[in-house]
Amino acid sequence: MPEPRRRPGGGRSGGQRRPERRPEGLAGWKRGIAALAVTAVVIGSVLAIAPAAPVAAAPAPGPGERPPAGNAGEAGGPGFPARSAALLVMDPASGQILWEKNGDEPRHPASISKLMTLLLTLEAIDAGQIRLQDQVTVSPRAQGTPGSTAFLEAGERITVEDLIKAVAVASANDACVALAEYISGDVDRFVQRMNQRAAELGLTRTRFVDPHGLTDQPGNRMSARDVALLSRYLINHHPEILHYTSIWEDWLRKGTDREFWLTNTNKLVAWYEGVDGLKTGLTDESGPSVVVTARKGDDRFIVVVLGAPDSNTRWREASRLLDWAFASFDSVPVARPGQPLRAVRVAEGRRLQVPVTVEEVFGVTVPRGEGGRVRWDLEVTEPVPAPVAPGQRVGRIVARDGQRELASAPVVAAQAVERAGPPTLLARLFGWIWPMR
């Protein structure tokens, strides 16, 4: 048992204290200096081992801003050593990139390229160029496409919708060629349109040479950031794609003599709760890759994994990045294009008000648990002078946490308002002066 600590002076409580002796002469000065030196050493040691004051965490990047890149095991990241060549996590509501590794490095996306083929197909349907129930005649070139296949045969007739399902679920290369030929007349013109659309969407590190991603050296190129941007656009503007990409297993050509059982190449559709897309990729050059999206409640996130060392790593890292995103952030969707936010007053227009909406999907990303504090309002200088054109910017929408502005976006007129003629303005003036009863 340790000896009890004694009071200064050496005696126990109540004992007689020895008289202090002061240092005398030069020897006394030396002893005093030595005591000061010892005190300084002790204080320095204490300061050296004392814990440093905590450093305030850097604020999360705002919408559209790039977070610090690095390994998933670094501070502020998902907390595990990432082995894949390129990874990225995005909130599709805000467009904010939450974490990335080599996000701007162009890589072979393999079958992830098919997202652009699917986008152009859905846009052709919206434009009335083709319909889901159109019958497509399969060409010999489509039949001869190697790799993943829906076993199409030359001369066979199959619906556009079945071709979409074959691409989205089974990653069928022959179905991609059949769609490309049906929409653009031949594959080369379709690939030109793929590259044109990529430029329109701001995919600056993307190049397509085929509609399916099968070609190696030189093949298609996309960065993880471009994959996420394309995925976000597809989800936000064509959410119907998730109806197909969320299918785990289903029949193709059901009820015919050529029915075929499809199984989704994206195993996370079956393995991870909330996953409803989006696309896998694998060639010798690309390595196992995937872009996956999942939704839980109001939260949806996109994860891109390119160039994993093996397929198990692809699924594991995608799952862990989704876990991290759902545990760390609240995704707060605020407004969608076409959604009326409110009506604003119009000066000298044939109508007195015009509804306003947003140009693009607008939302914010905040730390987990803070989503309920987000509020939004409109900043519009009223009245807006007529004439008003549809799509004309008239103000902005602002999302706030208390008095702190989180993000903003333009708001536009949802309809046209023509300028009123003199008779209408005079009648309105007299109606205001002498209201009709």
Automatic annotation (TrEMBL):
Transmembrane segments: none annotated. SMART domains: PBP5_C. Keywords: Carboxypeptidase, Cell shape, Cell wall biogenesis/degradation, Hydrolase, Peptidoglycan synthesis, Protease, Signal. Substrate binds at residue 279. This is serine-type D-Ala-D-Ala carboxypeptidase. The lineage of its organism: Bacteria, Bacillati, Bacillota, Clostridia, Eubacteriales. Residues 329-419 form the Peptidase S11 D-Ala-D-Ala carboxypeptidase A C-terminal domain. InterPro entries: Beta-lactam/transpept-like (IPR012338), Peniciliin-bd_prot_C_sf (IPR015956), Peptidase_S11 (IPR018044), Peptidase_S11_C (IPR012907), Peptidase_S11_C_sf (IPR037167), Peptidase_S11_N (IPR001967). It catalyses: Preferential cleavage: (Ac)2-L-Lys-D-Ala-|-D-Ala. Also transpeptidation of peptidyl-alanyl moieties that are N-acyl substituents of D-alanine. It comes from the Bacteria. It comes from Thermaerobacter subterraneus DSM 13965. GO terms for biological process: cell wall organization; peptidoglycan biosynthetic process; proteolysis; regulation of cell shape. Pathway: Cell wall biogenesis; peptidoglycan biosynthesis.
